[in-house]
Write a structure and sequence with these properties.
There is one protein chain. Helix content is 75%, strand content 1%. It is mostly helical. The chain has a two-stranded antiparallel sheet.
């Protein structure tokens, strides 16, 4: 009776090994999240301190705590407080929000399409969002008031994603090469339309500003505009964490996921809308910044494995840290000139993308969605 209740010694050994592995995995995840959280705090302090005007870290901390109503009496200039609180703080927060959002979107897209190269920028989603946003600026559309830019970017992102998916899906299957080629082709068409809009507009100064925005950047943000991308990030991460189990099922294949009770078509359609919404809001706020969503999921899987309940929060923190430091580099590498942060992420992501292509070619993994 005891053996029937507890199982054979071999089964007990297997259960103990799985429990040990599960415990070790949770410990590793906790340590990774703790390290990344500490790194993000340090990165944020560095982002507030480093720039054309250097502010000592101790003074940065004093200014921040004073702004929160818990610090000492001000013994610094009003100009430094303005730089830290009103200029750099919203920029650092937007960098963290955008980096986290792009990393999470890339993680979800790679699972939805079962493709390691899936990423908003490479699939033309960012180009679609940019075209929607620029159309609102050029034509002066204010139908949705202050959120008109984000609504147009969302519609452009969703349209681009659906177009890439429909173009790449031939014979009920999507391969890595076909998906990337479809994304590149559609992104080229959308970018051409965007450039045409800029060339034909009669607002020259505005066109130059928009052209700089299309390279990606975190400048120009303020506290009044930060709430929308922050809300979009919280919505996206919250929904994806709830759906993490279903994302895990998709990794096993569409047929296996259906067998486990997942309505794949409906699930994929809903997440396409969600991911397009988050992408559109982030692009409207920071411009199209590429390759964050490609690199972060692959990097964090090396530390926490492939379970999306672990990958999603880890990728969010990793993406936030990465983009905050990319923005610091953009402000300081060629000071006093500022490099668009999208240029720096492309310089990092381009070689990473080529490495992934070569790795998959060596493995012969041209996997796709069945």
């Amino acid at each position: 009776m005891t053996q029937a209740a507890t199982g054979t010694p071999a089964e007990e050994a297997v259960r103990r090994r799985k429990a040990d592995e599960s415990g070790a995995g949770r410990t590793k995840l906790a340590v990774t999240l703790l390290v990344l959280t500490a790194s993000l705090l340090v990165s944020a302090m560095a982002g507030l301190a480093i720039g054309s005007v250097q502010v000592p870290p101790g003074q940065v901390w004093a200014i921040v705590t004073h702004a929160l109503g818990a610090g000492q009496e001000a013994d610094w200039s009003r100009a430094r407080e303005t730089i830290v609180v009103d200029v750099r703080a919203p920029r650092v927060l937007l960098g963290a929000v955008t980096g986290a959002g792009l990393a999470v979107i890339g993680t979800a897209l790679q699972a939805l399409l079962r493709n390691p190269l899936a990423e908003p920028y490479l699939l033309g989603v960012s180009s679609g969002a940019s075209l929607g946003a620029v159309s609102v600026i050029v034509f002066g559309v204010t139908l949705f008031g202050p959120v008109s830019l984000s609504v147009a970017a969302f519609m452009g992102a969703l349209g681009a994603l659906l177009l890439v998916y429909a173009t790449a899906r031939t014979g009920g299957r999507i391969t890595s090469s076909r998906l990337v080629l479809s994304g590149v082709a559609i992104a080229a068409v959308l970018t051409a339309l965007l450039n045409l809009l800029l060339l034909t507009t009669d607002r020259g100064n505005e066109a130059r500003a928009v052209l700089a925005w299309t390279l990606g950047g975190l400048g120009g943000v303020n506290w009044g505009t930060l709430w929308l991308p922050s809300t979009a990030l919280l919505l996206g991460v919250g929904v994806l964490l709830v759906q993490a189990r279903n994302l895990n099922l998709l990794l096993a294949g569409e047929e296996a996921a259906t067998t486990m009770g997942l309505d794949v078509a409906r699930f994929r359609a809903r997440l396409f809308v969600l991911l397009s919404l988050v992408t559109g809001v982030l692009v409207a706020a920071a411009g199209p910044i590429g390759f964050v969503g490609l690199m972060m999921p692959h990097i964090v899987r090396l530390f926490v494995g492939g379970d999306h309940r672990r990958v999603l929060p880890t990728a969010a923190l990793g993406g936030a840290v990465f983009l905050v430091w990319a923005d610091i580099a953009a402000r300081t590498v060629a000071a006093p000139m500022e490099i668009p942060v999208g240029v720096l992420t492309a310089l990092c992501g381009g070689p990473f993308f080529l490495w992934l292509m070569r790795r998959d070619a060596r493995r012969g993994t041209d996997r796709g969605v069945a």
